[in-house]
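Let's practice the habit of predicting before peeking. Look at the sequence and jot down your guess about where helices and strands might fall. Then scroll down.
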Amino acid sequence: MSTARYSDSFWDSDINGSRGYDELKARIREGRKLSNEIENYFRQRAKIERDYAKDLQKLVDNCKHKNELGSLEKAWRDVKTDTSRIAQTHDTAGADFDKLAQEMSSFTDEQKRQSKAAEDAVQKLHSNLKSSYSKFTSQEKTFHQKGETHDELLNSIKFMENTRNTVVPKELEKLRVKESKAKDDLEKNENSYKNLHEEVTKSKAAYESEMTKMCELFQTLDEKRIDHTRDNLWKCTNLESRICVEQDEYAEKMRQNIEPCDIDGDIQLYIKYHKTGSEKPPNVAYKPCRGRALKVQVDKGDHLYSEVTLH
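Done guessing? Here is the structure:
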């Protein structure tokens, strides 16, 4: 099966029509709209990545607690460090998305420049063709009218010559003069008609040649646009993968740093550096206000009060 091409598929059988031109022009315009949309996606994505990076780093900077110690303190410090690295990953991704956006912008601008030049050239030649064709059809009508007039005069002369006995010679002579003038007029119009036919033929050839070039160019531009867009979307997914891989690597480092946390070791370390002593307060004596002996036994509580002598 042969592959169809733009240069064989976008013509208009009406010499004044421009359906093929209009369709291809719309195709290029719609392609440019998609390129602009993807460019905007990359720019917005870049902003999202940068903003997230800033917010993530701000979150880390606001975590200023310093009174922990031991393995948990180290694990928390490492988590903040790796979170900062994750923030840097997203900031770098933002810059990379900006690059993709700029690539799309430059590519789209160049395609617009090339397509605009081709569109203008074809439009100008088609305008020339329509103008030439209009003159040609107008002259064609005049030429055929002149031809009919000349034929009518010739027929009249033949008729008069066949009825010579009843025709006044002066009237026949006048008719012959009219026929001669009509013949000259017809020949002049025929020359003009031939010249205009030659002109419209050349205009048509020039237009079709330029239209063919535009079709070939537009197909090339379209092929490049599809390839370039697909390539940039592929790069976009690669960025997504890189972000995920790097973020997972830092998350794994966090897990590795969190895993060695030693609960008993941290407790012992805290006791070592912050203990206040092992001696408890002395027993509290009960001092009644009466002068008699009283034995007090407390079954519940922290203290057992022994016999107390009242003085």
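How did you do? The CA atoms of residues 46 and 273 lie 48 Å apart.
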